[in-house]
Amino acid sequence: IRMFARNMSSTANGIKHVTVIGGGLMGSGIAQVAATSGYNVTLVEVNSGLLENAQKNIKKSLERVAKKQFKDNDAGQKKFVDEVSQRIIGSVDVKSTIKSTDLVIEAIIENIKIKHELFSSIDSLAPAHTIFASNTSSLSIAEIASVTQRKDRFGGLHFFNPVPVMKLLEIIRTADTSEQTYNAMKSFGESIGKACITCKDTPGFVVNRLLVPYMAEAVRLLERGDASARDIDTAMKLGAGYPMGPLELADYVGLDTTHHILKGWNEKFPDEPLFKVNPMLEKLVSEGKYGVKSGEGFYSYK
Ligand code: CAA
Ligand code: NAD
After folding, report:
1. Ligand 2 atom 8: residue of nearest CA
2. Which helix (DSSP H) or strand (DSSP E) does residue 41 occupy?
3. CA-wise closest residue to 35 among 72, 103, 102, 84
4. Using CA atoms, how far apart are residues 12 and 222, in angstroms rounded to an integer?
5. What is the pTM assigned to this prediction?
6. Each residue's pLDDT tens digit, 61-76
7. d(Cα 244, Cα 248) in Å, to the nearest integer?
8. Sequence-distant (≥ 6) Cβ neighbours of residue 12 within 8 angstroms
9. 163 within some domain
10. Domain final residue, candidates 169, 200, 231
11. Residue 206 in domain
12. φ, ψ for residue 22 (rounded to 5)?
């Protein structure tokens, strides 16, 4: 993990204050890496219980990072965790925090209606220069941006789970994203230590366009009884060098999320065979088996 413990007074392209909306799996990781790099961060959740939960998860993750960075130095570990945590202010009132932010990164539920509600409610309250970005896995950035008056200052910043560990950041520009916005998003990404790639606003961008059909194909192998779950995963780890097998990875990403992505694409692109929905995946999700987060998916985590 590259770490930047800078205490900046000014940062990439004038971005100093970042608001992360949604403190779940992704939002808490995004808030953590931005704060670690010296940005002042506001993390927004829907209620104080969820906010506390997000802050707890950030602290746990920071402690993991600190243990490695400040080996055998308890005071150094504590100082690091405290300093970074202090740069993250929690809020349950997006409308008041948005008035003084340079970059908004949205990481709420993958639902276009709810994302539209959020962006249309903050567009007129945010300063004119503020850049809006979505961390969506599968939705169109242009479609999300369509409810705002700042389509030139709107793009995609797509992070990967676990955010503090995964080095990649996909930067998505729509036909309307301005050069200035693109450059600011890219230098923000670089300033937090991510390797940035650029992709057009296409379904799944680069990684998910390849990864989601791959995971779905692994479920089809299992559905047909061609191989066991363990053997499919072992095959891809030892035969293709992936850190996790496709079914383990689906459990890790969340079976609900994986199914939701496929379902959305299938509705939009019914002729694309790669986007076919899996009956087995659908069944597991209907039984509440979402993978690691619910304690059971293709494997048990209880
Ligand atoms: N916070 C901080 N550090 C963390 C962490 C976290 N949440 N999770 C893991 N780590 C650190 C560990 O401390 C450990 O550090 P060291 O090696 O320096 O000691 C390192 O990461 C590896 O962790 P583990 O030893 O616990 O386990 P591992 O070696 O099996 O690695 C993994 C775990 C990094 C998750 C690895 O299995 C992996 O890379 N898996 C694939 C993940 C992947 O493909 N993610 C992308 C999913 S797709 C997506 O995100 C996009 C989307 O839109 C759906
Ligand atoms: P999650 O369910 O873990 O977290 C979403 C959080 O957003 C929840 O805690 C929820 O309370 C909060 N939220 C919902 N509406 C809100 C609002 N109006 N204001 C403030 N907070 C609100 O989901 P996640 O896995 O973190 O995914 C978030 C986004 O990131 C989605 O668009 C998803 O597609 C994308 N994404 C997910 C992954 C992944 O591997 N899970 C990877 C990359 C991108």
Report:
1. 24
2. strand 40-44
3. 84
4. 47
5. 0.95
6. 999 999 999 999 999 9
7. 6
8. 184, 187, 188, 190, 191
9. yes
10. 200
11. no
12. 105, 120
pLDDT attached to residue 91:
98
257 close to ligand 2 (CB < 6 Angstrom): yes
Which CATH number goes with the domain that contains 52?
A: 3.40.50.720
- The two three-digit tokens of residue 65, written as one number: 């990072």
In a domain, 97, yes or no: yes
Residues 142 and 46 in one domain: yes
**How many structural domains are present in the chain?**
2
- Active-site residue, from 110, 170, 248, 296: 170
Q: By residue range, what is the domain housing residue 248?
A: 212-294
**Tens-digit pLDDT profile for residues 126-168:** 999 999 999 999 999 999 999 999 999 999 999 999 999 999 9
- 208 annotated active-site: yes
> Does 134 share its domain with 100?
yes
CA dist., res. 230 & res. 253, Å (int)? 17
d(CA 199, CA 196): 10
Which residue numbers belong to the known binding site?
A: 61, 68, 137
